[in-house]
């Protein structure tokens, strides 16, 4: 499937699944976040060798469907294939684990996948390292930043372009801790 067709199919699916959801602390539709992650992937692909942009864009657009909607792994696999569904599942936190273990578990599962899945995780956190929601206290902001550092460290070597982007954003995010 060509990139444009793959994008259209995935964005339509994500739009239907995330309908009515908004980005935390804003009136913006959640689809804005999903599109921002895909945009990071599209730009990163221009700076990356041997990068399957079609697969990565689909995973980016669908990355929160299992975690944040009623989408099942089976439904995603049927619509987009096993590889895309498996990438999305790796990016999905296992809520049966204690909260403190969920990110590390997800990172381990992500690392078992192609580097395009690593890139989606980096792009997701890059997109989220903007001004934090007003309702977040200092502790939440600090732990979110620590988690970003952990993500960047664990996925080092996956995509130099996105690693550079997240490193810069980690530094600039520190103003929100003051």
From TrEMBL:
Alphabetical list of SUPFAM superfamilies matching this protein: HD-domain/PDEase-like
Domain of life of the organism encoding this protein: Bacteria
One Pfam family named in its UniProt record: HD_4
Gene3D superfamilies attached to this UniProt entry: Hypothetical protein af1432
Stored InterPro entries: MESH1 (IPR052194)
Protein name listed in UniProt: HD domain-containing protein
